[in-house]
Here is the input.
Amino acid sequence: MEHSPAPKILLRTDFHRLLQALRKFGYRVIGPVLSQGSIQWKDIHAVEDLPVGWKDHQEPGHYRLEPDPSPRYFNVVHGPESLKPLTFVSRETLLILDRKNHIFSAKEIQPASQPTAVIGVRACDLASLTIQDHIFLKGSYADPYYQQRREQLFLVTVNCTRALPTCFCASMNTGPKAQDGYDLSLTEADEDFLIEAGSRAGLKILGQLPCTAASPERMTQEEERVATCASGQTRSLPHTTLPDSLYEAHDHPRWDQVATRCLSCTNCTMVCPTCFCHSVEETPSLDAQHAEHARVWDSCFTSDHGYIHGKNFRPTTKDRYRMWLTHKLASWMDQFGMSGCVGCGRCITWCPVGIDLTEEVRALCQPPQ
Here is the structure.
């Protein structure tokens, strides 16, 4: 990455200039917006579109937005959406098939994307994007749909100085401060932002802003606030003992216990920023002359996901939960050389019955009672 010479200070009263600069360079600007009781990525036209005056409270199976007297724009850490829907969309048409005079033709559909600046990206989601890049771009064949959307992103990260009870990014070395992968990095204070460029594109935008140099004392202050956020996280994963501890727990009775609670609802995989299970759907027209071939999100928690040629090799909830957790935290490492978890905690928050994977892993790593 090409960082700016030193972090700078952008006053809160000048934050709108960042939005203006991004639009000047042709970017669609999206960010966290209060919508239907949660935070979603939506277009940002003015500073007032950001969730000013709100903060989020998250616990296992619990999500609430609460009024907040702070003037900060980014006191809401995150909602159910990660960056995944922006690059690997939930439903994507790949081909249109037509039949005319008994002859079939196929037309490939390319995604219609535009340069998009995403403001308010958290460090854990940047880490998840690195994992998704490895999956979709680093193999023998790059996914052209993912690649086109990914190349259009300009990422403005906001370093976390406030941790949620469900966060455990510090134990996964993915936060709370972004280390790389961003174009611009912000650390928010009450009156201003510490801002730093992480790419050439970021340097161009930074050059358009009325910034001043940050003093060494100010940089130290921000580092301490981020460190306090990290030390305040109460959940963690023992990733140093993985994957072996999960492989050894294959027959642990804890799998039966968690299966009695799990609803197989797929919420955890839908909100997970790295899960990439998908299926394909064929949607024919009523006259049988046209058909749409689409890729859609799927989940290893659905009963059909393990069905192959007349047999379901993961017929029970226990089988499916064990497969998901073991793949995410163990065989993912063997497959891709990294963990499939970034510690965002979304799967804990958005599980209807509050299943906590950090608690499950801790129990599975202990000898059966």
About this structure: The chain is about 30% helix and 25% strand. Residues 348 and 356 are 5 Å apart (CA to CA).
